[in-house]
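WARN retry 2 of 3 for item q-0093 after timeout on previous attempt; input resubmitted unchanged.
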Amino acid sequence: MRHPLFLCLAGAVALAGCQKSGDAEVAAALRDVNVVDETNLNDVMLTVADPNEAVAYFTRANANDPGRIDLMRGLAKSLVRATRPTEAVAAWKTVVAHENATYDDSVDLASAYIRNNQWENAEAALDAIPPTHETFERYRLEAMVADSNEEWANADSFYETAIGLTTRPAGVLNNWGFSKLTRGDYVGAERLFLDALRNDPTLFTAKNNLVLARGAQRNYDLPVVDMTQIERAQLLHTMALSAVKQGDVTIAKGLLREAIDTHPQHFEAAVRSLRALENNVTN
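OK item q-0093 returned
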């Protein structure tokens, strides 16, 4: 009589074992789902969410699960997006100190230093990265640091290298052009701004810088590039201010009048500039 009882007990134990195994599998599956959901939420917070909301989210996440480098990076990136550079520097320094930090993290620390106007620290952070770590972002920042030191040959070399490492070079071409503009190489700057616009015809900063480069050469014709009516008015205003800087006041007033007439709404900045010129001439 003890055999059937033993078999029943063995069956019950086996069933319990199956139940525990099933529970473990379910729990593991839920963990996988939660990781996927969390990853998606993290991506949303880093891209389309309000920057300050993202900072609050990653601050809570770090407090609940300290030591996770992905959450630490999320907080640092969110602080950059929220235009909180001092806090961003501190956050990136914490990331770089983590045992699983990468050279890309050090590059991001250098970027945060630049945003906080700490150029010497940025240079030191970049110098600590081995030269074998060759990325677009690294060379883009190296070029900016070289510019700040007025090391023009190094800046040109870094800009050229950065351009070769990206399929979207418009921004760095614009930066390189602005570097040439500050050096007084207006012809070289104009060429680079045109290159930037060939890669991204919507980049208004390159259009505005192009007008500045032409104005510095006393060329007051707007460049032949794609522009909206509002952009045309704004560029005419920029050209007028450049003409004033060159001492060509009569030309400047004509450009300002054209800017006012071109703008589809009331162009207060151009009106003020024209009024100031006319009052100055009268006085």
